[in-house]
Amino acid sequence: MSTKLFAFTSLLALAASRPTISTRRAESSECWQTNPGTVFYSCSNGYKGCFYQDPCSLPPLSSTGPTPTTPPPTTSSETPVEIHELTKPRSFNIYVLSEAQHNVQDQVGHVDLNKPEGSAITTTNALVFDNVPAGAKNCKLNWRSTAPNDENNFTVKGSGQAYTRQLTGFPSKTEIVSYDGLKKYQDPSAEWSPSLDFTGWTEQPTSHGGPSLECGSQVALEIKGSDVGEGENRVFITLTETNGFYLTYEL
């Protein structure tokens, strides 16, 4: 046997001895949008698609077996975790830092975190997600952007760093939503978390994870932009089904 033929035969034997492997891609945005919580797998045993669990260690697919995109069977008796989302939260932009200013809910939901040039003051925003189901857990704030149109706008100027702080509640319809009006719902021990950064935003459809939040029938939080530098810092986002902030939770 020639040296070349021996080497080729050895490579075939080595490949045959390797276990079934996955060419997994990290959280395909397509999988996340169609089946939240799934990840894309392409396995040498025939499984290819969006799955909750790695199917690459299962027996090879046969003509009578499940289709490649069907989630693989599991021996666990646990029900698969379902991830749900709430979009288009109520939004209140706190433009004037005083009790006299009554910040009404935006007619067209948006977030405007603005530090004008030469100013040291940045506006804040309050977001409220209502009707979170009982039993919801692992609540998380997320954000996404899509191609701009008449409804979707996503603009970042200067620093895209933003900070969040969860509120313990939110003003009722008879209370004033303002800088001072929110104070009674602020946890004195809660610090602003630098959990959002919009510097790398893109007009291409994409999703980004944000801070974890305590679940409840109503989830409310404050967001503020960066006050660094002398120039303008501004993050402006319209809130639609496909653009801006949304809440995910498990049931």
Key terms:
2 helices, mainly beta, four-stranded antiparallel beta sheet, 33% strand, five-stranded antiparallel beta sheet, 251 residues, Jelly Rolls, 2 domains, 8% helix
What can you see in these coordinates?
By secondary structure, this protein is mainly β. The chain has two domains: 21-75, no CATH class; 84-250, Jelly Rolls (Sandwich), CATH 2.60.120. The protein has two helices and 14 strands; from the N terminus they run ααββββββββββββββ. It has a five-stranded antiparallel β-sheet, with no helix packed on it. Strand 1 (39-42) and strand 2 (48-51) form a beta hairpin. The longest helix has 15 residues, at 3-17. The radius of gyration is 24 Å and the shape is globular. The N and C termini lie far apart (63 Å). Mean pLDDT is 78; it is low at 3-28. Residues 61-81 are annotated as: Disordered. This is Ubiquitin 3 binding protein But2 C-terminal domain-containing protein. Residues 1-17 form the signal peptide. Keywords: Signal.
